[in-house]
């Protein structure tokens, strides 16, 4: 670790205090974070927000002499200093004796890493970005209004973090990260809207990015005016990156072993099976410079690396941390699949586990995806449209994806914003009020074409940053609610 | 410095900087989670946290911020920065907060057995015993095959004390306690499988588990899940039929089709880029209508049998509170009364937009989230019938007791509910024959106008309602009575 003496000292005290109190292994993670957000609607700013967080998470474990699994506990020290850490950590290490073995804890990365890939993921322009953001909102709104909107809503969120990790094996370091993301939703009357998003670490041309998003949303809102009631039936489907990231992201989340053991993944038992077309390759990649969840190492100090989840249409790998990799290897041995020797994919994360989705939730160590990246194909959006000989729906945005049974992948999702009927290679008319119903595995299998225009998607309905182009899928079922 | 002093300081300092309104909320919270899969614990964690949320109104613009470093300097810095940021917003139409009665009060969730009095071992033991009960419900005696392949149990407890103070002179202290049990069960028989997600919870202490006999209820639901997998058959019904839905289904309908569109911030458009708008914007005029008394406007949304209430004051309910997060006294609200739109959810910001007073609907999920209009316990008002009476005049129909998949468009108009535990009704009787995944896909007016007959008995369920950005999940009740829905076509 270079520099950052005070943070280094805190991390060291966190780990050493835990070990001294009787823990066998420990991780200390320091978060010093500032977030800003502006929300706007009806073409005016509603609220301007600022949050700061400064805390040290300490994870400590106790190995078991007669078992492969161990005990695990975590503690969050707010406003940490050496005195607070030394006072609080031993009490919580002591609590380990009241806990049973954690069947998901099989150890952490005990390798020794001397260097990590340097990532350029901090832009110091973030420091005063929030002061310029209201003006950016105004430009975005103006851009939308000038291109067909009569009202604009949205959000601009920026984040700056200093993150430090140290494990009892001496791995980790300190890095800075920053990003900005936003959503622009433009309206033209009650029945027509369009949406676009901005997701970036690079703040140099941020004005242009938001103005472009505002313009695109405005144009879509205008194009959607005069929409007709859609008809239920089977159509081919052209998904924008925003839609594709939501639908396929739900499937990719099933590469998480935790989802699998919880009965929440349709990918169980599909390893090395053909689940998509030959043209489809998807990676999980924490090293993409622009990726919002990129980082040089995970929370076990394992150097970040790219993992191929789907290779040429075949399910190739899950995401793992050290514990789930060991668990999967053990389960493979029980099934006499001795050749299966999964390793950590550098996805370990000291993450909050809870239903309330706020900082108040306790932390635990589990695999969490960083960024998904789909390979690109050869089609432009225009080509997707012009080569559509069967009735096709071009869907620009969706939300509220819910499952009948997550282990089967049966779902439906609700189109929102501009949606168009494409016939004989042309956009025929804007349509509204349909629902997409399907099965994640079938939709993946039915991919007919992959676009050449990838975009990073991260917004309200997509939590894992996903680099994905337009995607065309054949034979998708659309239903419709009855009643006026 | 203690939380109350810091909150008071934030308000004083904000006022000294010239803010029109300042509010501060200190929350000291303790969470415990017990997360088990098939009897093995995957995570047992606890966390204590303390933080202060501050909201200011400056030049008609709102700034919000939070701190978890609880020093006077940090609070001062945050008040300064959010006041400055609010000023930069430069709205043409200034935001105002409605005038409300000044109050100083305390309230608490009644608790007989605080979570701290129960050892970690005892909490683990509860989860283990419940898992064992569910496991037994999925297998025959002496059989090693279990039809419930996956049993996920998530026991969560939260206790917190909160202090809210504002520059109007109000302050409220509360002592809150919440417990929930969330289960995900996967039952599989041959090639058929079904998944059940069941949320139960209460603003209560540990005693809730025993008093409500949660163990036996969850076990009986798991038995029903096994029956559903074993007995459900897909049936094509291509005619209009009557459908009776149970408390769990009527609860989600009240929440999605009536509760969400009644949120004033949605109607005005503040959630349009996130949780969506409301189809109520088609017939509401903010200049001419009183959102606390919409009866005058005679906006008919459902049959005369439809009355929907939201009531945060129900003791022990998942959405229980006696003062909202803006120090406004909580009260029950008729959202729809005898089919007519009656009242909306208002916080102080949107009460002011409508030129009236708040009805105490402001909630926030954490000290780090702003208070916005939310539901609490939303349900169809119970009627006069028994469940049997609702069924007895149906020649051919369905009884849907629980649901799996559901969703609704962002204006809350086009909804879909897929039944899980569903039975055929024939000649006025519920048959043993179970129907696989019947889908009710109806517009809100079509649904509400088709309701004819409401039972007098009701049950509640717990769920977390999501809204806003950053997401603010808050606990709500989603139960209610049985409803008879006439002449609907399955999807």
Description:
The complex is a heterodimer of chains A (484) and B (491). Chain A is built from nine helices and 24 strands. Chain A has 484 residues and is an alpha+beta fold. Chain A folds into two domains: 219 residues, PmbA/TldD superfamily (PmbA/TldD fold), CATH 3.30.2290; 252 residues, no CATH class. In chain A, helix 1 packs parallel to helix 2 and helix 3 packs parallel to helix 4. Chain A starts with a helix and ends in a 5-residue tail after the last strand. Chain B is an alpha+beta fold and 491 residues long. Chain B has two domains: 231 residues, 2-Layer Sandwich (PmbA/TldD fold), CATH 3.30.2290; 248 residues, no CATH class. Chain B has ten helices and 25 strands. Chain B is globular, with a radius of gyration of 24 Å. The model of chain B has no long low-confidence stretch (mean pLDDT 95). At the A-B interface, strand 1, strand 2, strand 3, helix 3 and strand 4 of A face strand 1, strand 2, strand 3, helix 2 and helix 3 of B.
Descriptive terms for the model:
heterodimer, A: 484 residues, alpha+beta, PmbA/TldD fold, 2 domains, 10-stranded mixed β-sheet, 6-stranded antiparallel β-sheet, 22% helix, 37% strand, globular, B: 491 residues, 7-stranded mixed β-sheet, 10 helices
Q: Look at the structure and give the mean pLDDT of chain A.
A: 94
Q: Runs of chain A with pLDDT <50, length 5+?
A: none
Helix fraction of chain A by DSSP (H/I, runs of at least 4) = 10-25%
Main β-sheet description of chain B = 7 strands, mixed
Helix and strand content put the structural class of chain B at alpha+beta
What percent of residues of chain A are in strands? 35-45%
The total beta strand count of chain A reads: 24
Mean pLDDT over the residues of chain B: 95
> How many distinct domains of chain A?
2
> Low-confidence runs of chain B (pLDDT<50, min 5 residues)?
none
Helical content class of chain B: 10-25%
* CA-atom Rg of chain A in angstroms: 24 Å
Specify Rg of chain B, calculated over alpha carbons. 24 Å
Shape verdict of chain B: globular
Instruction: Report the end-to-end length of chain B measured between terminal Cα atoms.
Output: 60 Å
What does the main sheet of chain A amount to?
10 strands, mixed
């Amino acid at each position: 670790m270079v520099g950052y003496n005070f943070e280094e000292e805190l991390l060291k005290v966190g780990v050493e205090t835990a070990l001294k109190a009787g823990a066998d292994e420990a991780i200390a993670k320091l978060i010093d974070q500032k977030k800003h957000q502006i929300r706007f609607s009806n073409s005016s700013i509603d609220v301007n927000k600022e949050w700061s967080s400064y805390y040290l998470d300490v994870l400590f474990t106790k190995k078991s002499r007669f078992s492969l699994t161990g005990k695990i506990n975590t503690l969050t020290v707010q406003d940490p200093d050496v005195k607070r850490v030394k006072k609080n950590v031993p009490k919580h290490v002591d609590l380990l004796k009241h806990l049973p073995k954690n069947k998901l804890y099989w150890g952490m990365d005990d390798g020794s890493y001397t260097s990590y890939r340097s990532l350029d993921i901090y832009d110091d322009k973030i420091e005063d970005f929030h002061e310029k953001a209201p003006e950016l909102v105004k430009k975005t709104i103006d851009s939308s209004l000038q291109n067909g909107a009569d009202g604009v809503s949205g959000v601009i969120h920026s984040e700056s973090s200093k993150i430090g990790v140290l494990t009892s094996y001496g791995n980790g370091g300190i890095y800075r990260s920053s990003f900005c993301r936003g959503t622009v939703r433009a309206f033209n009357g009650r029945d027509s809207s369009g949406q676009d998003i901005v997701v970036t670490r690079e703040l140099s041309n941020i004005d242009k990015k938001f103005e472009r998003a505002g313009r695109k949303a405005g144009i879509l809102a205008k194009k959607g005016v005069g929409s007709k009631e859609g008809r239920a039936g089977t159509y081919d489907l052209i998904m924008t990156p925003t839609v594709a990231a939501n639908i396929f992201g739900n499937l990719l989340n099933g590469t998480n072993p935790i989802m699998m053991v919880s009965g929440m993944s349709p990918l169980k038992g599909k390893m090395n099976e053909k689940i998509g077309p030959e043209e489809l390759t998807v990676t999980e990649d924490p090293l993409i410079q622009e990726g919002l969840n990129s980082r040089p190492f995970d929370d076990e100090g394992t150097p970040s690396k790219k993992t191929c989840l789907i290779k040429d249409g075949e399910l190739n790998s899950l995401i793992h941390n050290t514990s789930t990799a060991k668990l999967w290897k053990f389960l493979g041995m029980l099934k006499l699949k001795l050749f299966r020797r999964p390793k950590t994919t550098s996805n370990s994360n000291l993450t909050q586990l809870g239903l309330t989705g706020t900082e108040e939730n306790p932390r635990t160590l589990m695999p969490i995806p960083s960024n998904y990246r789909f390979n690109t194909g050869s089609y432009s959006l225009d080509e997707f449209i012009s080569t559509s000989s069967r009735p096709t729906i071009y869907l620009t945005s969706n939300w509220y994806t819910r499952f009948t049974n997550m282990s089967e992948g049966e779902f439906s999702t609700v189109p929102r914003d501009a949606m168009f009927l494409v016939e004989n290679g042309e956009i025929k008319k804007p349509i509204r009020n349909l629902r997409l119903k399907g099965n994640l595995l079938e939709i993946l299998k039915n991919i007919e074409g992959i676009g050449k225009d990838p975009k990073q998607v991260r917004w309200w309905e997509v939590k894992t940053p996903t680099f994905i182009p337009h995607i065309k899928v054949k034979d998708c079922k659309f239903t419709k609610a009855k009643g006026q | 410095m203690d939380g109350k002093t810091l909150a008071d300081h934030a308000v004083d300092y904000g006022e000294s900087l010239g803010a029109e309104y300042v509010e501060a909320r200190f929350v000291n919270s303790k969470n415990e989670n017990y997360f088990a899969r098939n009897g093995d614990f995957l995570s047992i964690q606890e966390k204590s946290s303390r933080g202060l949320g501050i909201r200011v109104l400056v030049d008609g613009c709102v700034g919000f911020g939070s701190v978890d470093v609880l020093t006077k300097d940090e609070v001062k810095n945050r008040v300064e920065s959010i006041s400055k940021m609010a000023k930069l917003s430069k709205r043409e139409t200034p935001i105002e907060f409605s005038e409300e009665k000044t109050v100083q009060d305390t309230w608490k969730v009644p608790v007989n057995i605080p979570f701290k009095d129960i050892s970690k071992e005892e909490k683990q033991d509860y989860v283990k015993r419940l898992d064992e009960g569910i496991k037994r419900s999925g297998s025959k005696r002496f059989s090693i095959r279990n039809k419930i392949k996956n049993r996920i149990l998530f026991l969560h407890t939260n206790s917190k004390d909160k202090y809210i103070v504002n520059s109007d002179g109000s302050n409220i202290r509360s002592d809150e306690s919440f417990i929930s049990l969330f289960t995900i069960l996967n039952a599989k028989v041959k090639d058929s499988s079904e998944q059940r997600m069941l949320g139960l919870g209460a603003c209560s202490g540990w005693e809730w588990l025993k008093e409500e006999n949660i163990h036996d209820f969850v076990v009986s639901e798991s038995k029903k899940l096994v029956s559903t997998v074993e007995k459900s058959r897909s049936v094509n019904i291509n005619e209009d039929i009557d459908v009776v839905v149970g408390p769990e289904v009527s609860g989600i309908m009240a929440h999605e089709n009536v509760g969400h569109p009644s949120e004033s911030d949605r109607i005005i458009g503040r959630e349009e880029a996130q949780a969506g708008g409301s189809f109520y914007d088609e017939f509401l005029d903010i200049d001419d209508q009183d959102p606390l008394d919409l009866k005058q406007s005679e906006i008919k949304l459902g049959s005369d049998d439809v009355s929907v209430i939201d009531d945060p004051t129900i003791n022990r309910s998942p959405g229980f509170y006696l003062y909202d997060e803006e120090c406004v006294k909580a009260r029950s609200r008729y959202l729809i009364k005898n089919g007519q739109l009656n009242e909306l959810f208002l916080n102080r910001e949107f009460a002011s937009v409508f030129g009236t007073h708040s009805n105490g609907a402001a909630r926030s999920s954490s000290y780090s989230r702003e208070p916005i209009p939310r539901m609490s316990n939303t349900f169809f008002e119970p009627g006069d019938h028994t469940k049997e009476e609702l069924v007895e005049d149906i020649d051919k129909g369905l009884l849907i007791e629980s649901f799996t998949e559901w969703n609704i468009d962002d204006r809350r108009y086009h909804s879909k509910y897929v039944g899980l535990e569903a039975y055929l009704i024939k000649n006025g009787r519920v048959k043993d024959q179970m129907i696989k995944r019947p889908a009710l896909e109806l517009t809100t007016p079509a649904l509400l106008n088709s309701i004819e007959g409401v039972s007098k008995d009701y049950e509640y369920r717990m769920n977390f309602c999501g809204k806003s950005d950053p997401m603010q999940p808050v606990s709500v009740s989603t139960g209610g009575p049985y409803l008879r829905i006439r002449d609907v076509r399955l999807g």
